[in-house]
Amino acid sequence: MLRRFPLLVASLILTTGSALAATTATAAQASTPSVNPGGVMQLSGQSGALASRTADPIHATQAQSTNWSGYAATSSTYTSVSASWTQPTAHCSSGQQFSSFWVGLDGFNSQSVEQTGSEADCSGSTPQYFAWYEMFPAFPVNYSNTVRPGDHMTASVTYLGSNRFSLHIADTTQGWSHTVPKSLAGAARSSAEVIVEAPSSSSGVLPLANFGTVSLSGSTDNGGAIGNDPGITEITMVNGSGQDKDTVSSLSGGENFSATWHRSN
Predict the structure, then answer these.
(1) Are 219 and 196 in contact (CB under 8 A)?
(2) Going by C-beta distance under 8 Å and a sequence separation of 6 or more, which residues neighbour residue 85?
(3) Is 149 exposed, middle or buried (0-12, 13-18, 19+ CB in 10 A)?
(4) What is the CATH number of domain 19-261?
(5) Mean pLDDT in the chain?
(6) For residue 13, what pLDDT is reported?
């Protein structure tokens, strides 16, 4: 696993659409123009070597990261990853905080990520919600469609061959979906992951928005339950002192888990 990764300054790309979605996306960009909702995993200096978790029936290894939490599989060359989640509520009081929920290929032990997901951010006391895709290290692209707490989100990333990918996300509650074809030469496809992330900016990992608890289900890679992958890793997000920023539950049925917020920094 790579121990350090370059942080790129990534600008949120403004799109137009419904009044609510446009307002929230505009506010997010105006308040922090260099936010990157996705990107590679940054390994915590607190974690050291990965330790076998023999008490877990799925025999996951464990890792600590300053920006990722969730599950990543690394035993194969991956052609697909998918999951669903319930869009959480951002509990906002003051300041700027951010949280992303996504599926992707790569980024655990490589320096590209092909990913798509949703956002629950805070601009002062105002929550902001939207969806996006990103072919990291290229800049992210926001969708203008309305996203609200409680919406059922489903997403997948599929490798089509010849350096081509399909990135799909849908809000089945609001009734919209997007499928974007993208190309990226040299993608390792060495990991598949379902992730809750603290986005980054040019100054480093940003404060994690209080999303309460988010439930993620139907997590698969290469068409099977992600928990059945022999290379599965459970990732906990921690701060620089090794304190949990959020924690994730064990996988239920090999596909379902939850993440619970503990602190912003």
Answers:
(1) no
(2) 101, 118, 153, 214, 215, 216, 217
(3) middle
(4) 2.60.120.700
(5) 86
(6) 32
